[in-house]
Amino acid sequence: MAILANDFTLIRSNTLTVDKSSKFLLLMISILYASASFALQPLSFSQAKKELLKIYKSHPEVKSFYCGCDIKWKNKKGYPDADSCGYIPRHPLSNSGKINKRTKRISWEHVMPAYWFGHQLKCWQNGGRKACRKNKKFRQMEGDIHNIRPVIDELNGDRSNYRFSMLEGEPRRYGQCDFEVDFDGKKAEPVPGVRGDIARTYFYMENKYGLNLSKQQKQLFNVWNKIDPVDDWERARGNMIYKIQGTRNIFVTN
């Protein structure tokens, strides 16, 4: 009887141990799964801008994307220091004769414009960006931080949805800011120091969301990717974005 009692006690003890271990394991799996699910939740564009603000305010040494101007961050807004980069507004005054506010503020630019990733969806044909805001894939692309950079708002507006290209004649319109726009041809040429960043962003968007780039675009971006390799900030920025939205730009990390 003693042996049977001991055996029963041992069996019961092991069962309890297994039960406690299983519960603990399930609890840990649930926590990890919840954390991973939260980290991988797509951001809206407004959420993305809030996260970007945190990134750039914690790295005040980083300059505006196209012009390379120092940025002064105050509360939720950024202001370009025109003297630091020689930026001269194309339109310093608005149509009403007042100071053009777009020349005095930083905005968040989609490197691959919303038009280019949006018009490949059916929703764009039914009402453009407004209609696509109801599309889950569009919202994810619109809020993807890898594709968003801080730029002077005037340049954001002038670049519009124009494709990147190499322009002849260097039509400078912004002082020493080496950013050219061909309004008739709907093209824009960025400064050499960000061309690789742009190329890797387009490659990321194409790969991540199954978008289509033209053969001409790919050829240009392959060249830009080679002549302007990944730098320390691009790599650090990518790591910070990974912690926020759980995705990496493999064209930066590799």
Biggest sheet, open or closed, and with what strands and sense? 3 strands, mixed
Which strand order does the major sheet show?
A: 5-7-6
Based on CA atoms alone, the radius of gyration comes out at 25 Å
Low-confidence stretches: 1-18, 22-39
Question: What percentage of amino acids are in beta strands?
Answer: 5-15%
N-end to C-end Cα span? 68 Å
Keywords:
two-stranded antiparallel ribbon; 254 residues; globular
Mind explaining what this structure looks like?
The chain has 254 residues and is mainly alpha-helical. It has one domain. It is 50% helix and 11% strand. The chain has eleven helices and seven strands. Strands 5-7-6 form a three-stranded mixed beta sheet, with no helix packed on it. Helix 8 crosses helix 9. The longest helix is centred in the first third of the chain and has 38 residues. The radius of gyration is 25 Å and the shape is globular. The termini are far apart. The N terminus is likely disordered.
Quick recap of the structure?
It is built from eleven helices and seven strands. By secondary structure, the protein is mainly alpha-helical. The protein has one domain (44-253).
